[in-house]
Amino acid sequence: MPRNRTEQPVMRGATVLITGAARGMGELYARRAAKEGAAAIALWDIDEARAEALAAELRSGPAAVRGRAAPNVRAIVVDVSDREAVRAAVQRTRAELGEPDVLINNAGIVRGALFWEHDPESDIELTMRINALAPMWIAREVLPAMIADRSRPKRILNIASAAGTLANPRMSVYASSKWAMIGWSESLRLELRGEGHGHIAVTTFCPSYISTGMFAGARGPLLTPIMTPQTAVRAAWRGMLRGTPMVLRPWSVKLAMAFRGVLPTRAWDAIGGRVFRVYSSMDQFVGRG
């Protein structure tokens, strides 16, 4: 019970912006925001039909049925790989819903292949734009208002990946995008704290494989089960509300990081490849298709 009293005010009455919100984990974040009393929710996605359907459902959900004010939910179609489109979407969100109190950078793509098989534009550049640059662009647009408004706690949840903590074959571009996100997210957290903006908490979520379809065919390394989206979202959400700096799931992600940190590179290659089977986890990857 004490945990709910400290966490719930973050979401109740908040304006929430979620990218990649029409399906998978993004949809689950949106449902949690509505359930926990968010006043307004911006569903950013490139899939207009799915985003509109989810927005309509959340507007007429349990809160409306029980007579409570349902959240003001808007589906906003945006290609986050386009910086100008991001800027326009922020302006529309601001005009229709107000300044975001909570930002969930969830949108992401993966291309599983050997590096030299990646297309420079549709694989390399697009992955970096969506996974690494878009979260920075969005945060840069909304942070000034977050910093200025100290009337309520603010949250930024950046969905990174365990791939950003350990190198892995057939994930070079994806891993580099998530390494970039982790470095930026952690640096942003320290900057906000150092400059006295303690009402804004930044949480970086680093999960291993999740059964959303995005990593179809991938195999979890030793002691690392494929997580359900519900399990992953629950961990990320709790960490965000608490303002936990970094959330790593499952526990074996921390173990692998510890081994990698203390072992010589060649020794880790042997253990990571033969024992943990990290290096073969993407061998059967097919993706969402």
TrEMBL record:
MF terms (GO), sorted A to Z: oxidoreductase activity, acting on the CH-OH group of donors, NAD or NADP as acceptor
Keywords annotated in UniProt: Oxidoreductase
Ranges where the Ketoreductase domain occurs: 14-213
Highest rank taxon of the organism: Bacteria
Transmembrane residue ranges: none
Residues in coiled coil: none
Membership in a protein family: Belongs to the short-chain dehydrogenases/reductases (SDR) family.
Official protein name in the record: Short-subunit dehydrogenase
Protein species of origin: Leucobacter luti
